[in-house]
Amino acid sequence: MFYKDDRLAIFIDGANLYASAKALGFDIDYKLLRQEFDRRGKLMRAYYYTALMEGEDYSPIRPLVDWLHYNGYCVVTKPAKEYTDTLGRRKVKGNMDIELTIDAMQLAPRLDHAVLFSGDGDFRPLIEALQRQGVRVSVVSTIRSQPPMIADDLRRQADNFIELDALRDIVGRPPRESVGGGGGSASSEG
Q1: Residue 150 to residue 187: CA distance in whole angstroms
Q2: How distant, in Å, are the alpha carbons of 54, 57, 168 from that of 90?
Q3: Predicted confidence (pLDDT) at residue 21 exceeds the cutoff of 80
Q4: Which of 84, 101, 153, 180 is most enclosed, with most CB atoms within 10 A?
């Protein structure tokens, strides 16, 4: 599905990829991930999207975001919104779907192949729009977790589905044993 002369871009829904890898029991090594897709074609851009909590002295994801930024990723962040749900529980919302969609649509005329690291079914219309512009779309997520981390209609819309678990030996490493889910490594979103 990948051709050496393909102009390629990867779009990583950070929270979704982190949750998928965690469900499979490993962390993502983002240096190896970039190298792998650089090898599969002409990697034009590698985007990483995540929301950040503002006002906290320390965010466990900040070291990862900084590392990605300095190692060739286009990091797109926005402040997470904190709210209280109807049951009085503190919740955090940080959806990056619009930012990812806009970047993918703007880059589409200069791409042959887009790789989306997300299982979020909300991206199905994006995949369809990219395909109408002649861009092949691969989706990376997992059906091997319980429950599966990919929406069935997203998987069906994509030109190619890549099982994240099949990439474990290429872009994965054992999860780190740290409080907060990653504590400063470049290997997790947590």
Answers
A1: 21
A2: 15, 18, 33
A3: yes
A4: 101
CB 12 within 8 A of CB 48: yes
Question: Would the CA dihedral through 153, 156, 158, 163 be positive or negative?
Answer: positive
Length of the chain: 190
Q: Is the dihedral of CA 101, 105, 107, 110 positive or negative?
A: positive
Q: Which two tokens stand for residue 142?
A: 């997992």
| Cα end-to-end distance, the chain, whole Å | 31
Helices 124-132 and 97-107 cross at an angle (nearest 10°) of 10
Q: Percent of the chain scored above 90 by pLDDT?
A: 73
SS3 54: coil
Residue written as token pair 């619009």: 98
Alpha carbons 53 and 96: distance in angstroms, whole number: 14
- Segment 142-170, tens digit of pLDDT: 999 989 999 999 999 999 999 999 999 99
Look up tokens 């926005």; give the residue.
Answer: 78
